[in-house]
Q: What sequence folds into this?
């Protein structure tokens, strides 16, 4: 089944497959680049990679309004439950679950994960989505440093890899190029850049560097733009 992916700025993504909407790392109301507010997005599933505010600050209100099932680590699911979110499904690293839209697995990420109120947010993760009906395999690296096991993640045959390029808090353009070489996806899309001055990057220059050194197609989106996979 075809998937439509929309960049909602920073590291927030919306995936539409069939009549299901999957929202990744909702950070909208306080994001300087988000094209929509938290009360304007739909969600049947919400994936949260780690506890930092720029990945989960709108999760509670969106989950309560939409009734979406939130998939995250155990500690973040507990934190959401304590705030009245009714539907959560706790995973741990390497664990996955099957849903009508397909399979989702939590992958390792080298980062940190403190929740906005200072609580421990468990281990940070990325997400590997294998969409049903022979749909695409999509990897969200989320906030992470470069790690060599990306090569292993790539063995599933990735149609799309979404990679941070912002530097400072995550890998930057040079390591993101190495990540593309390890993952060998058909297509790569940059994320987690341009939100604030410290993570400003020239994404087109990064796309050029990937094009020069690999056969991977790079699509650079602007917040609000869509991509079909
Ligand atoms: Ni983070
Ligand atoms: Mn972040």
A:
């Amino acid at each position: 089944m075809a998937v439509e992916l929309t960049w909602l700025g920073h590291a927030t993504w919306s995936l539409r497959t069939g009549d299901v909407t999957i929202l990744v790392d909702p950070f909208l109301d306080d994001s300087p680049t988000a094209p929509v507010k938290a009360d304007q997005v739909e969600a049947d599933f919400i994936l949260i990679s780690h506890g930092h505010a720029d990945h989960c600050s709108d999760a509670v209100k969106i989950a309560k309004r939409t009734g979406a099932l939130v998939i995250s680590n155990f500690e973040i699911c507990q934190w959401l439950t304590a705030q009245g979110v009714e539907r959560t499904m706790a995973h741990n690293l390497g664990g996955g679950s099957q849903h009508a839209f397909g399979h989702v697995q939590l992958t390792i990420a080298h980062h940190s994960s403190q929740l906005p109120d200072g609580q421990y947010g468990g281990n940070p993760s990325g997400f590997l989505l294998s969409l049903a009906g022979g749909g695409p395999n999509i990897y969200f690296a989320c906030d992470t440093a470069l790690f060599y096991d990306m090569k292993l993640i790539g063995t599933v045959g990735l149609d799309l890899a979404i990679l941070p390029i912002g530097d400072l808090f995550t890998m930057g353009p040079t390591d993101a190029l190495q990540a593309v070489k390890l993952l060998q996806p058909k297509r790569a899309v940059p994320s987690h850049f341009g939100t604030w001055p410290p993570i400003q990057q020239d994404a087109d220059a990064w796309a050029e560097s990937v094009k020069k050194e690999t056969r991977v197609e790079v699509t650079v989106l602007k917040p609000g733009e869509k991509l079909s996979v």
